[in-house]
């Protein structure tokens, strides 16, 4: 087991349960090459001054085993094989951190009620719940009841979770990520103006943005997404799509952009938060679909438009290009508690509670936490 962080040997051990696809060593190498913003997935290493930190590892597997593991994970909705391979590490933890239901349901299935307490964060679970078969709903509900707390990123997810599986502690935990540096202002009247759209989430409405780009033919659109939906969209000639970009290239893209747009389909999990935080940090005028509770993250700092409607989206983009939408004020994301340090601090405070401390109500507030750390 590789334990990372300056925390003392008597500090609690936090094990971060990542998906099989997230190899923390490979991620660190990508960070050193400038490909990703964070040193580890979601920046959880920031808690290393309070806790000893360790991460699950994917392990080697041949193609047939990989195919079988993925097939079982697809049927169950969580990867119990990956959890089983890390069972010794997971059992050694004082607290286990998870980022999605794919990890915390697997941990619950593997360790039962007798294992370490789990910070069970869900992302897509409640979007998928209505379409689940009855047997799978019963299984998920039973596994959720093994956790002391479930964390979600939006009020919509909060309401759906409490209604579907009542009698548990479910808490809103605002997401936060590394904000981009504020970039030099590019006049909205630049020729041609550039509209930037970034993201790989499954609930991006790329077909709607393609229609909007065709309407706003006087602008150039830069779409940075490698998702299947983005690849399949019928983009007009004024759209340039890139599958991925480095950290420096992303900063350059925001510097060249006149505005940013986050087109969303209806969802429950505040899809698009990372892209919104990046746009707020860069100070770009922002147009966002009002879906999934995203308004709690950007209300007053972005133009919110109805999801799926072309005309309001086009009007929002044109207002941004004409200078009728102001960019976010400096440090807007941090002022709303959306920095990565705030996000990790929320995890730290939930962990203190799991270890026997009091619950801090500020965990769920859209306000900074990093200025008043827990001991």
UniProtKB/TrEMBL annotation:
Gene3D superfamilies: Glycogen Phosphorylase B. Pfam families: Glyco_trans_1_4. This is Glycosyltransferase group 1 protein.
């Amino acid at each position: 087991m590789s334990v990372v962080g300056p925390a003392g040997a008597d500090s609690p051990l936090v094990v971060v349960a990542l998906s099989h696809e997230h190899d923390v060593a490979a991620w660190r190498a990508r960070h050193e090459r400038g490909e990703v913003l964070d040193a580890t997935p979601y920046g959880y290493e920031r808690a290393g001054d309070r806790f000893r930190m360790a991460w699950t590892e994917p392990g080697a597997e041949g193609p047939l085993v990989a195919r079988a593991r993925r097939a079982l994970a697809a049927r169950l909705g969580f990867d119990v094989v990956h959890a089983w391979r890390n069972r010794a590490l997971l059992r050694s933890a004082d607290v286990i951190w998870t980022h999605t239901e794919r990890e915390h349901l697997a941990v619950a299935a593997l360790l039962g009620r007798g294992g370490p307490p789990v910070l069970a964060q869900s992302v897509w679970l409640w979007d998928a719940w209505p379409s689940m078969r009855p047997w799978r709903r019963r299984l998920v509900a039973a596994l959720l009841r093994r956790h002391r707390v479930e964390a979600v990123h939006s009020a919509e997810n909060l309401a759906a979770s409490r209604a579907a599986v009542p009698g548990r502690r479910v808490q809103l935990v605002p997401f936060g990520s590394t904000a981009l540096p504020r970039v030099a202002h590019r006049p909205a009247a630049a020729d041609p103006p550039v509209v930037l759209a970034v993201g790989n989430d499954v609930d991006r409405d790329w077909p709607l943005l393609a229609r909007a780009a065709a309407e706003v033919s006087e602008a150039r659109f830069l779409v940075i997404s490698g998702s299947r939906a983005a690849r399949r969209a019928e983009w007009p000639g004024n759209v340039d799509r890139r599958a991925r970009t480095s950290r420096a290239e992303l900063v350059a893209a925001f510097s060249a952009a006149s505005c940013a747009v986050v087109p969303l389909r209806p969802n429950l999990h505040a899809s698009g938060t990372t892209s919104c935080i990046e746009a707020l940090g860069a100070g770009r005028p922002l147009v966002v679909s009002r879906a999934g509770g995203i308004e709690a993250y950007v209300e007053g700092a972005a133009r919110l438009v109805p999801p799926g409607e072309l005309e309001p989206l086009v009007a929002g983009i044109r207002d941004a290009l004409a200078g009728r939408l102001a960019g976010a004020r400096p440090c807007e994301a941090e002022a709303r508690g959306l920095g990565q340090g705030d996000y990790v601090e929320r995890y730290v405070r939930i962990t203190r509670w799991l270890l026997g401390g009091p619950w801090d109500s500020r965990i769920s507030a859209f306000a900074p936490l990093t200025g008043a750390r827990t001991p």
